[in-house]
Design goal:
Shape: elongated
Helix content: 55-70%
Number of strands: 0
Number of helices: 2
Strand content: under 5%
Radius of gyration: 17 Å
Largest sheet: none
Length: about 55
């Protein structure tokens, strides 16, 4: 018999989604600050361009 534990799976999914949302929000905030400063280097920062793929 197959037994599924949906609560554990849902909790893990919720943690992963929350982590992704946090990375996106941090990148958006950093990009907005760099944009206000007129920093052209913001287009070369991988963590701002692809926050879900960049490490750290």
């Amino acid at each position: 018999m197959i037994r599924a534990d949906a609560d554990k799976a849902f909790d893990a999914l919720a943690r992963r989604l929350a982590a992704k949302a946090r990375r996106l929000a941090e990148a958006q905030t950093a990009e907005r600050l760099a944009s206000r400063k007129g920093d052209p280097a913001r287009w070369r920062r991988a963590r701002l361009l692809w926050p879900l793929f960049a490490k750290g």
